[in-house]
Protein 1
Amino acid sequence: MKSEITELPHPDRAELRLADVLFALSDPDRLDIVRQLADGPLDMAQCHLSDPNVPKSTKSHLMKVLREAGVIRNEPLGRGRRLSIRRDDLEARFPGLIGSVLGAVGTVHADGSGVNDR
Amino acid sequence: MKSEITELPHPDRAELRLADVLFALSDPDRLDIVRQLADGPLDMAQCHLSDPNVPKSTKSHLMKVLREAGVIRNEPLGRGRRLSIRRDDLEARFPGLIGSVLGAVGTVHADGSGVNDR
């Protein structure tokens, strides 16, 4: 079986649009993914949704919205895919925004709900 | 003719949800409204959309999304309605968020596009 490791398109820093970035962040599951990436890049397989029964296609779509808005980078690495927040690009275009969102997400999940159950 | 000045419901500070706030801010027209309110409250009639042909019902809906998410307050004042950003509530719940969005919106409109044409 051949694994399909493809380079996906990412918007350039100059192409990032505030409304798109905010929309990508406006969903609890997508916020959860971003929160998991707050401490550094993760392999796609390490990134979990709070509901483990979510289909893989749904997870892929959540990643796609985040990537196309320029919030995350999704790159092939070995046989997997490496996800990371585009902090430098976001900070350059929208200073303080991603930091405030990550801070708020930490607050939202202060009750321990959500991710990192496995 | 009797003007209908009604008190509209607003979520309490503790009820504000990050995803809802980000969603409310994820639309160019709604961002434009928020930008106009950045320097202080405005009467509804002073708040203009970039496209003057937008129906009044659309404008009302944009205001509703912003109000229901807790981004703006929409209160009766005299014969009109007074709109304001709920800065204290937003700052208390999501520190730095509304400031970074307003800063970024200023950047987005640095080309002079958008509002304040009248």
Protein 2
Amino acid sequence: MYLADEAWPDLEAYFESETLAIVPLGSTEQHGPHLPLATDHLIAEAFATEVAERTGYLRTPTVTIGVSPHHRQFPGTAWVDPPAFRDYVESFVRNLTYHGIDRVVFVNAHGGNVQHLREVGRRLRDDDVAYAIEWMWDESIPDLVDEAFARNGPHAGPKETALIQHLRPELVHDDRFAEARDGGAPNPEESVRVRNGAATFYDAVENSDNGAFGDQTDANAETGAELFDAASDQLEELCEWLAARDWDELRAPERVSREG
Amino acid sequence: MYLADEAWPDLEAYFESETLAIVPLGSTEQHGPHLPLATDHLIAEAFATEVAERTGYLRTPTVTIGVSPHHRQFPGTAWVDPPAFRDYVESFVRNLTYHGIDRVVFVNAHGGNVQHLREVGRRLRDDDVAYAIEWMWDESIPDLVDEAFARNGPHAGPKETALIQHLRPELVHDDRFAEARDGGAPNPEESVRVRNGAATFYDAVENSDNGAFGDQTDANAETGAELFDAASDQLEELCEWLAARDWDELRAPERVSREG
Amino acid sequence: MYLADEAWPDLEAYFESETLAIVPLGSTEQHGPHLPLATDHLIAEAFATEVAERTGYLRTPTVTIGVSPHHRQFPGTAWVDPPAFRDYVESFVRNLTYHGIDRVVFVNAHGGNVQHLREVGRRLRDDDVAYAIEWMWDESIPDLVDEAFARNGPHAGPKETALIQHLRPELVHDDRFAEARDGGAPNPEESVRVRNGAATFYDAVENSDNGAFGDQTDANAETGAELFDAASDQLEELCEWLAARDWDELRAPERVSREG
Amino acid sequence: MYLADEAWPDLEAYFESETLAIVPLGSTEQHGPHLPLATDHLIAEAFATEVAERTGYLRTPTVTIGVSPHHRQFPGTAWVDPPAFRDYVESFVRNLTYHGIDRVVFVNAHGGNVQHLREVGRRLRDDDVAYAIEWMWDESIPDLVDEAFARNGPHAGPKETALIQHLRPELVHDDRFAEARDGGAPNPEESVRVRNGAATFYDAVENSDNGAFGDQTDANAETGAELFDAASDQLEELCEWLAARDWDELRAPERVSREG
Amino acid sequence: MYLADEAWPDLEAYFESETLAIVPLGSTEQHGPHLPLATDHLIAEAFATEVAERTGYLRTPTVTIGVSPHHRQFPGTAWVDPPAFRDYVESFVRNLTYHGIDRVVFVNAHGGNVQHLREVGRRLRDDDVAYAIEWMWDESIPDLVDEAFARNGPHAGPKETALIQHLRPELVHDDRFAEARDGGAPNPEESVRVRNGAATFYDAVENSDNGAFGDQTDANAETGAELFDAASDQLEELCEWLAARDWDELRAPERVSREG
Amino acid sequence: MYLADEAWPDLEAYFESETLAIVPLGSTEQHGPHLPLATDHLIAEAFATEVAERTGYLRTPTVTIGVSPHHRQFPGTAWVDPPAFRDYVESFVRNLTYHGIDRVVFVNAHGGNVQHLREVGRRLRDDDVAYAIEWMWDESIPDLVDEAFARNGPHAGPKETALIQHLRPELVHDDRFAEARDGGAPNPEESVRVRNGAATFYDAVENSDNGAFGDQTDANAETGAELFDAASDQLEELCEWLAARDWDELRAPERVSREG
């Protein structure tokens, strides 16, 4: 069920029987020379839509601008600073609880959002207001992703490429895959500036000249479809698990006592 | 041109030659028993898309969650609190200026956002960072709107109904128009709680039981199409005017001196 | 009753029997070449004083510096930025509730404060702390004001001029009325920069060279006195109405249910 | 010269020739059973007015609500919390600098404001924006004050009583002086809860049952007048000194070097 | 008992039986040419350690960086701005209350921290969360300190010198005592820039060229040891007093009623 | 060189020739039944001290309280909330730049601080103020750590145990190693609550009953010493590399252009 498509009288029953909401979040940032800036928020929205349809759980609109200052050097990257992002998402979710929502799945497709969603989630749980889970599709099927492509990358690599080939093929520049690979960081582990165990970079451009990582020539829509289905299964399972929990299971644990 | 659909190399030329961005903003809030919660952000996005296509100016993704605490009593209304909204939009626009943007049209379709967009716009101009104009479609064609419908309303009335009938007819509950009118505030000026010149309400539900205002039975898709075209002309004209300004024309005026 | 003139033992009885406070707010900003910068706060204070005396309700000191960045270009305009204004007023009112105040009338005479007082008022009501009403004198007698003068203006026009002529004639430069009109924006609707329905200005000086609007030569103290009395009646009525409400009538409404 | 009484054209010359502003600040808080809550802001305003008249320097309106949470237990005490106070005053003064003001005398009559005005003053100086001095009348004539009364007190004692007797005798309850003394803390040094060198109180009521300190029966208007004149001389001298400084003398010192 | 040295199972019993914590705070700032920057935090830590050992009360780690912008001109002075300091200390103490702590002694050895610790303490008490006392060693034995040295100073004077001679003699440059005195402000009351009763300085360097005050040649370790013991007795007494209080004694007083 | 031990004249030469500072940060939080709460800050301080001595670079005092809400359930865990931590560290480092510091190594020994130090580091670099690197000892020698112990853990495992055995053996409860292992999460990968790729926990106690992870019985001081030396070498190398950089190498990269 998609919140924004409904008129309010048609939402009343949901809030009477359910307390879970699916909130998709992504970014609008460079994804190499071959993928659209929308990549992350398209992926998040697609998973949220798919699983909302499968399960009947409520999906909200997608937060499309995320925390992407590290991609700023590439034309068009849009972002908000971390405090603004956290406060916006926190306010959004707190206000959802007005309607009875007390558990949320952040369907997130941007690595740069993770820590901020966790920080917001902690505030909400520590205040005993809501329990939020941050979920990323590729984390849910790590083995499949590893098997699918020889050289993955954390950003704009074959896995994201395949997903957009599956979801929005018209937005993919297939003719730039080799360029993406050769002008970027085909072997991410070699490119990322880590020195003596410490990251010595802040921006993606310091690790990849064109903002892409991995070997994009490996990607294709079929594999994208398979990964999408497999991760959708994972998300579906997670939502069902979360919905089935008693609120008390989700609250912050009590203080520990050695005596017990 | 839609920012999110492009890959970064295809945006470079735009930022070299243009400094204007169109940023659509709306809300996800009750719009009576007959319209989707998305109404405002669908309208904003439609105008932004239309004029971006006509003119070639850059459009960003739509901010879909706005300042709607006054609709909270109706199931599903989503909102962020004003400080979070202002800071999110401000951070978003400030960061756009990294790419050379120095003028922005907020294509806004939610009255509750206006004052906050003006406040953000002032911060940006007073800091000499960017010049932003807040634009609402119905304000641009007030006479047409007045002529089109006998009993308009500030929210979820025939004008918004007609626009959604035109833009997304499948989301309109045509069979609830009479209900919308009769269960709401068909004559807004009679319903709005103003006492001794002062608003004595904070929430829409205090003025309309079902959240709708005006006479929705008057609405139809054809009128919606006409209004859409007429207001699009206005927005196009505004964008062209703004793009043609020298930066110095847009900056805050100097201090006044009587002697001159 | 004026809070600041009393010693604390003489206030105890009030807080035991009443829960209403009148809080006047204005600005210290240019009001054309003929009126003092104090105009707005003098007007607010005069109404608050008059009605406090008539009714016995408690009046607090006047907040004299408001949100007036849009008048900055004229020598002497003082202002605080919106976040500082909101937080100051909110803190002030929240702390009044320590003494049992749970309803407040903001007697406001500066348009630039309105939205901020409404935002603060919402915070207070949504937190179930206090119910605040923002009141402006000219909004309470719109017909009288319209009839009184041929060409009114939103700022430093004949209505404000007449009021100061009545309240503090020694501060009015009667010899500058023609200058105020001719060097300003005698026909405000023609001067205000609105383009395609959008405000394309942020500062008053963009609409009026000398900061005045309307035809000041129409103003006189007698009309000022009449308007003052008429609006005082309105404010008195509002205070009595507010004081007579049960707290439950003032609290935020419950969530809506279609089934009821 | 009083800012608020002037029309803007009459202020222009001041800002062309002078850069100093006098900003009076006080509180609205209990001052024992015999003095009005306005005591501090009346005193601040009186000194500012006197010296503005003597010298021609610009005086702004008075900030009447200060940091007085420590008097909250007494009916009517109004206050704002420290962050709101600091931000309001800072914004007010920063915005004054728009007109060319670069030095400010805070004519402050409330001890609870001191540290906050110093904190604001530091921000302004460290940002190289303005130089502000916090001044309290009794600190400027400590010997006179000591000689004038046998038993002074930090709050609502004979010195403040005498000043209000001089400035606004109609607001003084002369018949409650003995009550003020006997029901309060006639010997402050004995009453203030300090234990092992540490303050163990936060509120005035912990040290004085009726909020007064010292022996009020000693006070009279003549002494008040003398103290007022003497301290006015001090303030006048301070303003002249400050106005005569080069800006470079007022800026933050350079880093120290041992070698020199 | 020192919190940081213990493993968690060994702390459980403390929180079951006690609710007091000792929190040492100081600064890292210039202390003349002869004393280490650590002076204040070493002193605070030494007192906290001594009394925690004597009494068994829990001591936390020391906050070593405080509010010292006024010493910035001297090489090496480290500081945090006041809002950051207040929020850090407030968050630290609020979180201690999770374990049952409801009373705290701030063992503070830096004058610049005092007002901020009081402000934090007020927030905590007004929120009914914890009761915190700010304690400085020299305030607890003012007569002893006065007798010990002919010319004391508020900063880097003989009293602090003697304490570091006692506590960490290897960090004291004994050969620079005369330099400290002669290049600094040997007679503080003559050096501090106060004009017409108002402080006209913000930084220590404006009052002392080398940052030291008083006559350091008077200091010796024996006197330091005596002062340390005497002040430790005071702190011990204060802790025992505080621990013995009922929580109700420590809460904010009720509102005052003249009749009541 | 340790900042806090020096008197200011002895620091001047450093700031004239060097621009690097080493800032140690840790936490005060449970580390299983066998290690002190100080574990992380002791480790950070030890590395910072060692390398400051080896290289002569300046070390500041240690920030001992970090972001540890996830350990709150265990008695004694102290923490500050993320915004307070970030602002405190940011203010501290920004103020160090007053003295000429423009590069910082955060010697951090607490995983919970990492993202916050990176966020602060970004603010500083994006503002062109300073370049900060976050370094954790175990990340610098991952292979050695893996080889050293069969079952490591992210927290309170054998690697941290061995380090404290080396650095502060008297604080280690050797007799509780088996208890630490058996009552905790001996095989972390099996214990950490991850479901469908998403973390479904917020607190350590949800993954380990006693807060420890890994097999502590493997730890010994000799291995601790070896690891300490090896990681110290890494840190030394990092400091030398950073110190040798031109400032321009450390600044944020320019915008990307495809044309180049």
